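Friendly challenge for the regulars: who can give me the structure tokens for this chain first? No prize, just bragging rights.
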Amino acid sequence: MSDSTLSGGLGVSTAADWFSLLKPRVMSLVVFTGAIGLIVAPTHINPVLAFTAILCIALAAGASGAINMWYDADIDAVMHRTASRPIPAGRITANDALGYGIVLSAISVLLMAMATNLLAAALLALSIFYYVFIYTMWLKRSTPQNIVIGGAAGAFPPVIGWAAATGHVSLLPVLLFTIVFFWTPPHFWSLSLFASGDYERAGVPMLPVIKGPRHTRLNVMVYSVLLLPIALSPYLFGLCGLFYGATALVLSVVFCYYCWRVLTDQQDPQGHSLTNNAPARAAFKYSILYLFILFGACAVDRFI
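First reply, four minutes later:
Bragging rights claimed.
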């Protein structure tokens, strides 16, 4: 793709285009897990400061998304599911998107430091750095394990929320971090199974492109099994009660069932799905619901 296509901007941008740069669907999950980290913290925080902390997490997540779209504009342009994004479609220039992301990053970190504490601001800055430099610029285009290692970027919010409320980090937010970290591979690899053509076309070394769909299905299953005891760990360590423990067990067993269906999907001799990856699509959708309900149960359990 020519530089003029990525930076010229032939169309007229709208407010919706600038909002889409923030990756709102990803942001919603990040904001939710960050808010849960703040809610379950063993302290009370002024509602205005709590709202400000959550806003900072949202701004940081959106800023990371904007910088990610700036850096990935070349591959977004050749992938069907991303070709209509504002930069490859020419509605926003790459340079404008980069500036937008940098400004939002700075605002989010500075505002977090002023509204809460330096630890929360430092963790917020680290999450931006990890997503932009470790995942986007290094791992995504260099290894099929990009999602495993890069999953840490999306696991920071509950730790940040907790730190914003307390000024320190303890075991529960670390366990919540670990849950998101181990949830990310089966969640994203399910997506990659039915989007592998896009990734192959763009030259992104996702697991199904490099190792094949059969190997990917096995990894989806393995990580879902590993996730089960990790999801139960807040209950097993006595940090959450029976309500959370029962919810985590049921949700995780169902997740394993969805991933088992991914593993046993009807396949041709090369391991490609004969069902249009219907089980993978279902597992991907359930994985989003899984994390929302699981973290919601953690908050409900706190009040119970």
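Residues 170-304 form a domain with the Four Helix Bundle (Hemerythrin (Met), subunit A) fold (CATH 1.20.120). The first helix runs from residue 3 to 8. Your move, everyone else.
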